[in-house]
Amino acid sequence: MRLSPAHQLLLLPLAVVFLLGAGTAAGQTPPVEEQPDGTSQSACTLPEALTAAVSRHPLMQAARENTAVFEAKLKAAELSWIPTAGIKGYVSATPGKWGDPMTGGTDYEDWGPYLRIELSGYIPVYTFGKISKLKEMAGAGVDVGKAQEQLARAQVERLVAQAYFALQLAARLGPILDEGERYLGRARTYLEKLRDEDSEEFDDVDMLRLKVYESEVAAQRLDLSRMRELALTGLSLLTGMEEDRFLPPAKLAPLELDPGELATWLEQAYRKRGELLALDAVLRVQTARVSLEKRRFLPDLFVGAFYTWAKAWTVEQQGSPFAYDPYNSWFAGAGLGLKLDLDLAGRLGGLDEERANLRRASAQREAVRQLVTMEVEKAWREARDLKTKLDLNRSAYKAARGWVIAKVDLYESGMAPLKDLTDALAEFFKRRIAFEQGMLEYNLALAALVHACGGRLHDILPSKVE
Quick check: pTM over 0.85? Predict the structure, then answer.
């Protein structure tokens, strides 16, 4: 038995899905867009989007500036050998003074200017390791900043990957829904014509079935449109590029990365994970702080010098070098000095505080290490399971296609009802969508696994864009 014209039109949308699904493996190349000036510009690839986002995103800029702060502190520590100098100046008015320490007086009717300048400076000679510990702390601080850059980069790359893979999925499913909507419209026009003509071929069940298909396609269209627009907005904000640079991206295909063994990923995470690297640097900082507090019980040796010059134009200068004359004189000197803070209670309390901070940092690192272990294992198991699920979806999709072919033959032979055929086509449509969505989920799971281990998404992307 052959399908009636109405039934054939009803089955066309799902048959189109079937035909389009058979061409999944066909390669696609990034399209070339024509620019207003006549030049061509290829669509932005995922590696290009990652590079652009990492170079300009505010999170990365903030992380880089944070590292610059630590680098400035390191520079200051390395320049500790530069002499420290200070200058003070005083300008005032003073009454006139005459005579000497034995006989003299003050003339309050004769006022004049008074100028005094003081210069002083010192350079450390030996600090019992205090300066070296400050350099060590500053260097570890730079490592903390770089580890925070890695964390920011992983966050930005994950956002880019989520948006880009979602846009690829939307680009893949869009044509399928477009074809389906066109054929559903033709089917509705034909059924309405049969209804208006009171044709015996018209069946109310066919119209109801058509409404179900239209509702399903409309719901898919809403989800797809929302996903596409959010992906475009996200990519534009992340990369600073115009949205038309991402229309359409390359085809959606599973990344070629074997999840391998969990132990391998854990080992990599312990060596490269940003949080652990940052806490390792914090431990070095705290260890240096404890050592610095111990050294503060010891003095600092330095070479110091000073020079003072004073001049009062209404004060008579003293002739004797032994006379105290703060008004018209100069003083200078240099020598080896010793500086020691005798606040014993403060020093002991500071040492105990830094030791407690060191123990706290060590405990925090162990806690983060446990969290990293759980996160890596979770990401690894999800990636492994989604890979298996993707293979199952691929098998189900192929089986559904065979199911459709078998039902078409049976229906045409009059050995199967129409419902069996429509059920097979609907299942094929669902399996096709599940297969495409499964690739998206698998790619995102692999990206999460790589980032959970401190890696870069660039490392698992194909070197050649198809």
Answer: no
